[in-house]
Design goal:
about 110 residues, alpha+beta, Alpha-Beta Plaits, four-stranded antiparallel sheet, 4 helices, globular
Length: about 110
């Protein structure tokens, strides 16, 4: 019996039915966040990602990322907070999805 490889979180978002403009905004938001990521920390069942940069741009990117993820991702939980001039994004999920979480911004 062959096991099928599960799609990554990003592939799941890309394949979900939605407005093409959402996919474009989602991709741009991930790219912006990847450029401004300054630290990653392992937590129980997930990771924390810390970002530093232009506050308005980071806030808009996180808001869009979560908007799309909350509509399409069934297996990961996303939340963010602003701490002074930094933003913290927390992604958690079951053991099965730890690889997706680890590779989210790769």
């Amino acid at each position: 019996m062959k096991s099928r490889k599960q799609p990554s979180a990003a592939q799941e978002v890309a394949s979900a039915p939605h407005d093409p403009k959402d996919l474009e905004c989602f991709t741009a938001a991930r790219a912006l966040l990847k450029r401004h990521r300054i630290h990653t920390r392992d937590i129980l069942n997930g990771k924390d990602f810390l970002f530093s940069g232009p506050v308005e741009a980071l806030h808009a990117a996180l808001k869009k990322l979560l908007e799309v993820e909350h509509r399409t991702s069934r297996f990961l939980q996303f939340d963010y907070a602003q701490i002074d001039k930094y933003f913290l994004l927390r992604i958690v999920g079951s053991r099965r999805y730890q690889g997706d979480i680890a590779a989210y911004f790769d």
